[in-house]
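Hello again, I could really use a second opinion on something today. I've been puzzling over a protein and I'd love to understand its fold better. I'm sending you its amino acid sequence along with the backbone structure tokens. It would help a lot if you went through both lines with me. I've dropped the whole record in just underneath, so have a look.
***
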Amino acid sequence: MTRLHLALAAVVGLATPLSAQALPEPPIGTPKAFTMPAVERVRLANGMTVAFVPFGSVPQTALMLNTFAGDLDAPGHPWLAAINADLAKQGAGGRDSRQLAEALSAMGGALSARADANVTQYSTTVLSDRAGDAIGILADLVRRPTMNQADFDRVMANRKRDLAQSFASPQAMADVLLAKALYGTHPYGTPVPTAAQLNSLRLADVKAFQAQQFGAARTTLYVIGRFDQAAVRAAAEKAFGSWKAGPPRKRLLARFTAGPKLILADRPGSEQTTVRLAYDAPAVASPTDIPFRVTDALLGGSFGSRITANIRENKGYTYSPSSSVTSRPGGASWIWSGDITPSVTGKAMAEVFSEVRRLQAEAPSAAEAQGMKTYAGTYLLMRTTSADLIAGQLVRADTLGLPASYFNGYIQRAMAVTPQQISAMAKQRFPLGRLVMVVVGDMKSVEPQLMALPELKGATIQRVALPKTSS
């Protein structure tokens, strides 16, 4: 073998002298303590808040305008808040959508708009010396949206396509069915409208929502990055100072409806079985919140989790299983998701339940726990690495009522979780009597497999039809 062949063999692992030697895995380090950047909040005379967060060294300013106006404020009309945000992007302050985009582009930015059950957000990141000009545009979006019929018709056409796509997706439908099972008629329980609800919306409904639900008292402008604070504050006073306070924020707490409950939706011929498994979780910032999040990482919430290793890596039953904790005002939920080969749906779920029972019966090793604590701790760090991510965390804190100490002590509390606490969390939070499970798939082959699982024997079974794409 020539020297070139030896070199190539070594590169691809064919030469054995070095590759045959087992290299020790590097030890898992301990993440450093994290401190959320300091926030200075200034209250304008009309009740609006401006939150200043100096951050980074790049001469850019991230601006996020957050108003507590969402689907909670429009009961019976899911997506109304999102349609309102879509429509504002079409024109505001005398500019159409193209002119808005060009104006922000000249400042180095682009406009983002979103709305959910709790909030409506408009955001952009611009050059620091143009922050004041960008604030004027954000003010136009909430104070002077154009809202003409042609723009409304275009927005609605897009939303109707989105709804049709949702109805065609087993994953989206599983999420819809689970939300209804967990939260019922609460707006959290209706994340998407029916076709009839969407078709019934008129421009007048959006205008009424904008006029009635937006105001200074519900709004915070987050200013993050490098900026001249005096100049930015003056720009905010000019843009928002005369805005009416409007109504106070609406709070409508939702409570998790526990099982045991099994919801089955038949989708004949489906190539996958889509599963959602849910339990209620500790409220954010409660004493068991972070220990539970570490437990989630170990069980299903990380790529190295036990469930993922079992049914993805070892058995190949599914490609991308995962779990996560979702916190809302008033509570939280743990949801495991998976798309499983139909013929092994029962086997896959048996393994999921087996991993839960194993963790309940025996605490993990110190090494396994250390890795998951590090993962759970650094998860927060990954969401505070940029100005817009910090803005997102601040909005989350304001939505959930979190103190700054929640972030500042997060990593230390995660690293203090013991293996015994992890096992205790599995015992306390995953009793079979509170299980809620949604399955979308070909029930002719899947349902008999599920009925054979002992964990589902006592569950209330509900068979539902998938929604139609038109009214």
Observations:
- Confidence is low (pLDDT under 50) at residues 1-23.
- Residues 135 and 236 are 7 Å apart (CA to CA).
- The first strand starts at residue 40 and ends at 43.
